[in-house]
Structure formats: C-alpha cells, structure tokens
C-alpha cells in the first residue's frame, strides 16, 4: 500500500478488527511495534502481540492463532518470501506487512487480495513488470482453445511453442535472478509507521522518538548507506521542529516529566555520555579501527591523541558526568579538531537527543545499543520472550531503570566485541579464502555465547572487518567481503554463520551472501537451517562446514 486515500481506508478497516501482531527481534521492529501499539490504544483496538525471531516461530505462531484471527500485522518479517506459500492461510485471512527487508517477493507485490504491503510512496522497489514474470491463466486458456479449435498442431508450430516456452522460462529466471540476487534494506519500519500516524493526524512526540531510534538502529547496524541515513534524518528533522518548538520563557519552565527532542551534530562515540571518554574511545569501532588500538603502537597513538587535545588521563578515565565542566564545554570542537589530524575526519555525525525532565539526556544511538543488548541478553531469566518484553519496555520513558540496565549490558557487549576483534587480528584468525575473508570463533573463546546471537554476531563481524581493513597492507583483501562463524549449539553440533559485504567508502550495503548460501547448501547437501529473516545469516552442522565453504569458494570465484 502506498499511502493514498484508498490505502488509508484499507488501514482504517484494520482498526475495526481484532489483530495479531507478529514482530521480529530487532530494534527497528520494536520501535514500529511501539508506534502501532500507541495507535491501537488511541482507537481501543484489541490485539495480541507475539514476538518471532525466525521463520519457524512465525509459522508456529500463525498456526496457533489462525482460527482466532483474520487480520495479521507482520513487522520486519514476511516481505522477502512468498508468504502465502509458507503459511498456507485461508482465503479470508489478510496480512499487513511492514518490513524493511528488500527485495520484496514478487508474489507479495502483485497479490492484491490478501497481502497489503506498507511502503513509503518514495521507496523505489525496482520490481520487475507483471507481464515479465507472470503469465495469466486467460492467455494460457486462449492458447489451448486455439489448439483445440483446429486439428493437431503441425510439427513446426509445436517446435515453435517449445522454443518459446523454453525462451520465456529462461527470460523469467534471468529477470528474477537479477531482482533477487542482492539483499538490502529499505526505509525503517518505524519511520513507515510514524508516517502512517502522521497521515492519520495521530502522531505524538513519543512516536517521533521511536521513529528516530528505528532509523538510528539501521545506521548503527550498518544496514543503510550514509546517503539514505542523511536523507531520512532530514525528513525526521522537519517533524522534530514541528513537535518541539518552544520559546525561551517556556524553556525555563520545563516540567520534570516533560520530553524534548533536539537535532544534534554529535560525536560518533558509543555511549560516551554514560561511560568514561577513554572507555568510549577504546570501544567504538570507528576510533578503535582508525587508531589500531589492538597494537602497542595504537595505544601510543591514543595517548598522543588525548595529549593533542590537552585532556589529562585522570579526567578522561573518570565518568563523563564527573569531568570538569570547563573541559566538557568545548569538548566536541576539541575532539573534532584533533581527530582530523589523526585521520578521523568523520567523527561527527548528525543525530538526535532526547531530554526527560531536567537531568536525563540520551542520544538515539544510546537507546539502540541498550535495547539491542536487552533483547540478546544471555542472562537466563524465565521464558524466551522475557528479553523481548524487557527490550520493548525499555523504549517507554517511564522505564528508565530498564534503560540503564540495557546501557550496562551494552557496555559489556561493546567491550566483548572489541576484545574479540583484538584477539582475532593479533592471532591472524581472519584468513583470505579467495573471493572472501573468513573468520571462525572457536568454542571456549571468551564471550563466545554472546556471539551465538544474530545481532551481536553481525555487529562483531562489521567491527572486525573495519579493523581488518585498517590493519592489512594487502590491497586486494581490503575489498573483500567477510564470512564469520561462531558456535551456536555445542550439543547439537551447529554453528551460526553470517556474511557481510565489503567495507568500502562507496558500499551500497547490498549483500549477495543470502542467495550464495542457499546455492552452496543445495549443491553439497549441507545440513543448513535458513531460519533468520536476514537471508545472509544461517545455521549449519559443524561437520558440513568445510564442504559448504569449498562450494562457496567455487561459486563466488
């Protein structure tokens, strides 16, 4: 559905029903879910929320609830496969799909009865023309009627039809291959949901903040290009101005429970306002990779960098809140100026901050790290859905204690990632396999349990590739993608594997590993599980790993 009058009427129809919400386990999906929940609460819509972390859970949830519901909303899942083929629903079931995964499956695009895709009007889906991939039954009937009218078709005509059918099949295969070859991400689902709220004149400042966090999640996880990020920031900035304009008198009388969003040019340093500046510099991928902090020389450069800014070690190693106010006042300018001398020209980033009352200030990226860490926490507490509910709750401003718990977990996660990156590079664990780089974490590696989770493993892979590109002198290796593997379930003998595109300035963030993994598994009969909504993440039997990798090498060479 593009957001026109017909689309809004169709969506309003949804607001009159009982709805099943199926939500994927990523921060953008959680933010979109919060916006939709707020919209449902406005109109007293009854809904049931079910978190789904993969295709198996999606199918199970659908089977369990299909008799009680006719309307299903899928957030960040369901767009990139033939949904009706997988779920086999009754004809009176309707699916509203808000999913940033691209490319969208062509059957979903052209199904006008049961599947409604929620897409922003300016999103270019690049879908092949209907006539290029589907042959209507009417055409086929006409052809068969023409044949039955006359006598037996001549050999010449039969041969022509066989050749045409063969040509049409290969033409269709080629078009679909080109369309489905690369996986990438479209506009954040939280932004799409906010757009919907805005068009319905029900947008609130809280919803706007969730849309900002959803977009920031795509940026933190490196799912979209810098150009797309800046464009979407511009769109949200206009909404921020509309919702948060105040004159000076009001500014001085802010109530303790008020909320204010502001656009900022801030530092690209993870959690620095809730940590020490030193820890943040050491555990942010951008600074750590550029300064090569895994080496003695890199540590020396860090101290030179701090000296260049005139910041005493005693100050930078204490909590940011406890630093001298005189140092904090011009900190951004000081850091930026010195960063340029040390080859870090992109240390400043466009973002948004939020103020709750007088003293609580968070950057959008703080919320992303905290929420993602809560969602993939490896501390066992009750049923599987506990982490999902905790993460969802941390996005409400009434739950600052959960948010702070998330920030503490996020610091542990970032430290674990940085230590693992350092040990992989220092022990030369990243090896070139020809068409790609490969790194495998062994069982017994510190924090290896954390990296059996998809978001954490993807973050580690991206940090590792950035650092490897900065550390290697081999020019060819700098342009290669990376496949990373970590133990998944030791008892079952499985590994989780993720493929990420090359780390280049001009990278379009398109990922070809999803299709490559499928083909390699097929050709070698490897026991794989393609259960993740991101096709470039798979689970694999440990014994099948070497033949699977060999197939990938020959496929991509």
Question: What is this structure, in a nutshell?
Answer:
It contains 24 helices and 16 strands.
What does this protein look like?
The structure is a single chain. With 557 residues, the chain is of the alpha/beta class. Helices cover 50% and strands 14% of the residues. It has helices spanning 5-14, 27-42, 55-65, 83-87, 106-110, 130-133, 137-149, 155-180, 189-199, 205-220, 226-243, 248-252, 277-283, 285-291, 296-309, 313-316, 325-329, 331-341, 364-375, 386-394, 400-426, 454-471, 513-524, 545-556, and strands at 19-24, 47-52, 71-75, 94-98, 101-102, 115-117, 184-185, 259-267, 348-356, 360-363, 431-432, 437-440, 482-489, 494-500, 528-529, 537-541. Helix 20 (386-394) packs across helix 21. The radius of gyration is 26 Å and the shape is globular.
Q: The biggest beta sheet, please? A: 6 strands, mixed
Task: Supply the helix-strand structural class.
Answer: alpha/beta
Computed over alpha carbons, the radius of gyration is 26 Å
List how many beta strands DSSP finds: 16
Q: What proportion of the residues is helical, as a percent range? A: 40-55%
Count the helices. How many?
24
Which residues sit in consecutive blocks of at least 5 with pLDDT less than 50? none
> Quaternary arrangement of the chains shown?
single chain
Overall form:
globular
- Beta-strand portion reads 5-15%
Region (Disordered): 136-156
Pfam family, one: CDC45
Keywords: Cell cycle, DNA replication, Nucleus, Signal
Biased composition (Acidic residues): 136-152
């Amino acid at each position: 559905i593009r957001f026109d009058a017909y689309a809004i009427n169709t969506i309003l129809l949804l607001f009159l029903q009982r709805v099943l919400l199926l939500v994927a386990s990523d921060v953008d999906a959680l933010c979109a879910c919060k916006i939709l929940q707020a919209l449902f609460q406005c109109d007293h819509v009854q809904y049931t929320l079910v978190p789904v972390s993969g295709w198996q859970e999606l199918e199970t949830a659908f089977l369990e609830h299909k008799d009680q519901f006719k309307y299903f909303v899928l957030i960040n899942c369901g767009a990139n496969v033939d949904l009706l083929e997988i779920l086999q629903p009754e004809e009176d079931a309707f699916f509203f799909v808000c999913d940033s995964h691209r490319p969208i499956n062509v059957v979903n695009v052209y199904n006008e009865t049961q599947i409604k895709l929620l897409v922003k009007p300016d999103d270019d889906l690049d879908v092949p023309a209907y006539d290029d991939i589907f042959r209507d039954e009417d055409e086929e009937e006409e052809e068969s009627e023409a044949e039955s009218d006359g006598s037996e078709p001549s050999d010449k005509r039969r041969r022509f039809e066989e050749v045409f059918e063969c040509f049409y099949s290969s033409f269709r295969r080629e078009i679909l291959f080109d369309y489905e070859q690369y996986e990438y991400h479209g506009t954040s689902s939280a932004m799409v949901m906010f757009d919907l709220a805005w068009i319905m004149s029900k947008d609130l400042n809280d919803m706007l903040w969730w849309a900002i966090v959803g977009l920031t999640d795509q940026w933190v996880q490196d799912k979209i290009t810098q150009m797309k990020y800046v464009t979407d920031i511009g769109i949200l900035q206009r909404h921020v101005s509309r919702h948060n304009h105040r004159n000076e008198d009001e500014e001085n009388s802010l109530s303790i429970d008020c909320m204010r969003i502001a656009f900022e040019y801030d530092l690209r340093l993870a959690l620095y306002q809730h940590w020490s500046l030193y820890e943040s510099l050491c555990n942010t991928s951008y600074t750590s990779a550029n300064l090569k902090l895994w080496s003695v020389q890199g540590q020396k450069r860090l101290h030179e960098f701090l000296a260049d800014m005139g910041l005493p070690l005693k100050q930078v190693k204490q909590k940011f809140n406890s630093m001298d106010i005189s140092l904090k006042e011009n900190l951004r300018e000081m850091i930026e100026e010195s960063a340029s001398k040390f080859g870090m020209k992109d240390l400043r980033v466009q973002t948004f901050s939020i103020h709750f009352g007088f003293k609580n200030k968070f950057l959008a990226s703080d919320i992303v790290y905290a929420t993602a860490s809560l969602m993939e926490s490896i501390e066992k507490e009750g049923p599987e859905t506990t982490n999902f509910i905790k993460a969802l709750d941390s996005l409400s401003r009434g739950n600052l204690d959960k948010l702070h718990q998330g920030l503490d977990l996020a610091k542990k996660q970032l430290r674990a990632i940085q230590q693992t990156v350092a040990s992989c590079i220092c022990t030369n664990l990243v090896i070139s396999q020809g068409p790609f780089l490969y790194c495998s974490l062994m069982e017994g590696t510190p924090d290896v349990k954390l990296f059996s989770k998809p978001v954490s493993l993807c973050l580690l892979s991206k940090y590792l590739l950035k650092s490897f590109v900065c550390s290697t002198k081999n020019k060819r290796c700098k342009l290669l993608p990376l496949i990373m593997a970590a133990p998944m379930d030791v008892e079952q003998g499985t590994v989780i594997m993720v493929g990420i595109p090359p780390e280049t300035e001009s990278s379009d963030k398109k990922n070809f590993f999803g299709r490559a993994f499928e083909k390699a598994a097929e050709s070698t009969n490897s026991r794989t599980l393609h259960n993740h909504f991101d096709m470039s993440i798979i689970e694999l039997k440990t014994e099948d790993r070497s033949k699977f990798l060999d197939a990938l090498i020959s496929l991509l060479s």
